[in-house]
Amino acid sequence: MRTLPAISVGDHFINVDAFSTKYRELDSLLGLGEPAKALIPGPELVDRAIFLLTAATRYAQQLPRDRYDDKIPGMKGEPLRTKDGELVRHPDGTPYVPHDTNIGLVRHIIGHGRKFEVIAKAPAAAGYDRIEILAPLGEPDTHADLPEMARQVDQIVHGIRQWWDETGGRDLGCEVHALFGKNSLHEVLQGMTYGLAQHTRQLMHVLRAMDIEPNEPLTDAAYQGLNLPEVVWG
């Protein structure tokens, strides 16, 4: 077993995570027969990812500056490490601590958007199976202010739309060597969209805990087909 979480039946197992939506393999492992179509169609997936990323940017603008460094529920603020115990770092050398604060959650959401763009444009690139490369990929560094992060989101949205306009999603079926095994590009991008949905939902809860109603809050339609857990934190 390469990593957790995983689902096992007897001697057979499948690693599962937000990055790895192995619906067909799971159905086969659990003896459920031919599954219903689980992947969101490419054009809709692109629109959904952009919609969620844009919504998260809108909610980030509502965060009070004096609450940026408030801790996210359940997070310990510890840097991520590789399986060998080495610190995972941002490109600027600072340790990578995933979404442990309110503003860190915003950076993490933007990172999911950038990963969507980067992997869509270069699905055969090396390194997506290495946590020290994939985890911090695309996250704004800790020195980026909110206007700079908003500019990065604009660039990401433009890049995703450009990729779709130029390719029409012709590579969605190709295989990507990702952190949790070999998946189709379509599955990996849906995993990134899952991450966008779950973390943007969390950002809305952060605002509501401060008695701030999110500007144009997400509805259930934004989560349809993404199999989000019932719990917001955990």
SSE layout and pairing:
Elements: E1 6-9, E2 12-15, H1 23-29, H2 42-60, H3 102-121, H4 131-134, H5 146-167, E3 175-178, E4 181-184, H6 185-209
Helix pairs in contact: 2-3, 2-5, 2-6, 3-5, 3-6
Could you please describe the fold and organization of this structure?
The chain is mainly alpha-helical. The protein has a single domain (40-222), classed as Up-down Bundle (Four Helix Bundle (Hemerythrin (Met), subunit A)). Helices cover 41% and strands 7% of the residues. It has helices at 23-29, 42-60, 102-121, 131-134, 146-167, 185-209, and strands at 6-9, 12-15, 175-178, 181-184. The strands form 2 sheets. It has a two-stranded antiparallel sheet with strand order 1-2. Strands 3-4 form a two-stranded antiparallel sheet. Strand 1 and strand 2 form a beta hairpin. Helix 2 runs antiparallel to helix 3 (102-121) and helix 2 (42-60) packs parallel to helix 6 (185-209). The longest helix is centred in the last third of the chain and has 25 residues, at 185-209. The radius of gyration is 17 Å and the shape is globular. It starts with 5 loop residues before the first strand and ends in a 25-residue tail after the last helix.
